[in-house]
Amino acid sequence: MSVERITLRFLMTGGHTAIRSHFETLLQPEDLDAWLSNEFGVEVSSRADLTDLESAHTVRESTFNIIRARSRSQKPVALDFERLNHHARPAPMIPRFGSGGQRQWVSPAPVVAALSTVARDAVDLLGSPDAERTRECENPNCELVFVDVSPPGQRRWCAMGRCGNRAKTRAYRQRERGATSN
Fold first, then answer.
1. Other C-beta atoms within 10 Å of 5: how many?
2. What are phi and psi of 135, to 5 degrees?
3. Is 143 exposed, middle or buried (CB count within 10 Å of its CB: 0-12, 13-18, 19+)?
4. Does residue 95 fall inside a structural domain?
5. How far are the Cα atoms of 33, 35, 139, 166, 171 from residue 178, in angstroms, in the given order?
6. What is the domain count for the chain?
7. Cα torsion 153, 156, 162, 167: sign
């Protein structure tokens, strides 16, 4: 079972660290439009601009910084909380049913509302009991974030089939090399 949060999906769009910047998908305002359209299933009527893109990066980086600090048993920087609060203030996207019964998202200001929705979800996640189980993958070449919903609460990797297997294979090979050199 996984905790599906818009915040976690948004963090997967890249970032400003060396590892996360390699996977950056929000390079231009049009990229933000495409992500919002895909995520919320709406055509964004007011196109994102450079200010919106900067706001998106701020929401994403503040969220990541708080999670990273907490997962490393450090105190998060107050400015990151202030930034999330600021972006959570505007009205969020409004869910409604379309004529066919499908969920739609609407807003008179969809870009700002979508970022508010993401920021509100980040505040909700980081202010909930799930915050204690929100972690950064322990693979040094991966910075994906996840909520550990395993019963013992000791999950270490974003995905066992990816980073977990790599770590176990690496440890096995190191043990084998050690056994061979003895």
1. 19
2. -135, 160
3. buried
4. yes
5. 52, 47, 22, 18, 11
6. 1
7. negative
Beta strands in the chain (DSSP E): 94-97, 103-106, 134-136, 145-147
In a domain, 156, yes or no: no
User: Cβ atoms within 10 A of the Cβ of 34, count?
Assistant: 15
Phi, psi angles (nearest 5°) of residue 167: -65, -45
Q: What is the pLDDT of residue 123?
A: 97
CATH no. for residue 14? 1.10.3300.10
134 and 147 Cβ atoms separated by less than 8 Å: yes
Cα 52 vs. chain centroid, distance in angstroms? Answer: 17
What residues have CB less than 8 Å from 61, skipping those under 6 apart? 15, 16, 80
Give the domain extent around 109.
6-132
Residue 56 located in a structural domain: yes
Looking at the whole model, is its pTM more than 0.85? no
The tens digit of pLDDT for each residue in 21-76 reads: 888 999 999 999 999 888 887 665 568 999 999 999 999 999 999 999 998 899 99
Closest by alpha carbon to 83, among 63, 97, 101, 99? 63
